[in-house]
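Project standup — Tuesday

K.O.: blocked on the structure for the chain from last sprint. Re-posting the sequence here as requested.
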Amino acid sequence: MANITGFWSYVHTDDEDESGRISQLARDVSSKFTMLTGEPIQLFLDRDELDWGDDWRSKIDSSLASIAFFVPVITPRYFMSEECRRELNYFARRAARLGIDELVLPVLWVDFSSLRADNPTDDLITLVRTFQWSDWTHLKYAEVGTGEYRRAVDELATRLVRANESATVSQALLEEAADLEEEEGPGELETLASMESSLPEMTNILVEVGEAIQSIGESMQGATIEIGGQQNPRTAMANRLRVARELSQSLKMPTDNIRNLGNDFASSLNEVDQGVRLMIARAPEEIERNPASATQFEDFFESIRSMLPEAEQGLGSVQNMIEQIEPIEKLSRDLRKPMRTLREGLTMFVDGLEVMRGWVALIDDTQLHVAS
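H.V.: unblocked you, prediction finished:
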């Protein structure tokens, strides 16, 4: 192999929340790949860098003959990211046409219910499920440099090497693939129907998570007070450790529940997001063609606007709780996993608020165009 290329597709916010663990894994796997093959590899890791740029499609097309791997890091946010969706859809479908789909190796970083649904409504989730992913939902907690982590990196790199050894593509097929068009996704009716069915579910999740957050907050506050109240120098540390371990045990199910709710919320939000953006995009043309439809669009836009303050009120304590996690996480090794799980779930809701704020901004901009 010569001039081989590796693409690592992930959501930057996920990497930031994981303290750079995702990008670290990318570099470690690429280094191990080079060690196993003896070939240098060009790693496309950061889409913000100039090497990635706006012409990533042409880079993928021009690199298919020498591609080493395409690794999408699967989380709920991945399917909410337009950039990630485009990258995976574009590469996977072209690779499949050329018979090199084994070079797509998803890394499952966060498991969530929509990924296991019998009939997923997101075509890209259906596509991802056709690949044999590498499960890092637990391995991601292994410390870098430990035997467990190094063995997992070696196994992942070895899988990629074996996939490369079996993947062949001719220049004729490559040229033919350049002329093929991307397969169509769901139609407008399917997108709007998914939005309608997901909106009530999203609202119910917001109510449920508010109650769950309050319960966890009370447990954390009680434990913090008890830990601070240990004054006897002979037994203080042992008693504090006991309280921390008891808190860890009591938080396991509630924090798992928060993460599951976050996953479900992100999945529902993705369905709603596609429908809302479609409605916003259609509004000017529809109103111009049928002015009477303006009232319907205004009613819909107003309902979307009203969702934001309700969501902000319901999730008002989320950011505060995220800020409280770090000092509690440092108290004891036993608390690290439930606190990470809690942060993982809560962050999905915070990101969801940003998506909803984006809707309102788009609606306001669209209204100006409609009125002009």
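K.O.: great, moving the ticket to review. The longest helix spans residues 236-289. The chain has two domains: 4-178, 188-371.
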